[in-house]
Amino acid sequence: MALREIVKIGDDILRKKCRPVTVFDEKLHTLLDDMTETMEQAQGAGLAAPQVGMLRRVCVVNVRDKHGVIELVNPEVISVEGVQTGNEGCLSLPGEWHEVDRPAKVTVKAQDRNGEEFTITGEGLLARALCHETDHLDGVLFIDKAKLNND
Ligand code: NI
Description:
By secondary structure, this protein is α+β, with helices and mostly antiparallel strands. It has one domain (12-150): Alpha-Beta Complex (Peptide Deformylase), CATH 3.90.45.10. It has helices spanning 26-41, 124-136, 142-145; strands at 46-48, 58-61, 70-81, 84-88, 98-102, 105-111, 117-123. The strands form 2 sheets. Strands 1-2-3-6-7 form a 5-stranded antiparallel beta sheet, with helices on both faces. Strand 2 and strand 3 form a beta hairpin. The chain binds nickel (II) ion (NI).
């Protein structure tokens, strides 16, 4: 495994739409391993492939709950319920924290590193992280949805 450099705000790659993964090979596994290592080292709750310069629909999440590290390939939010408001940050925008509304509960369909489909349902921080990371794959950043204080 190896640490990868985290792309910061201002880099166009964070605004691009990622391509689906069709090949579940060693290269994908290395990317996932490296992303997890990079996320853990940076003490983040999630990391998406464009944040390490890869335009692939891949992300990892770890909100320190029973799930541990969750690897998501081609994730898709398939249902949302309720709303929660809370502070959110991003490893690509160091030091920036803003309030963002997110669904209180979310179900995501994805594939694992071997292409097996699964669904995961999360509430609270997990729901927030799943939405945040999935957004990254479409070039959407949390500041786009944040309630910025302009007064
Ligand atoms: Ni982020």
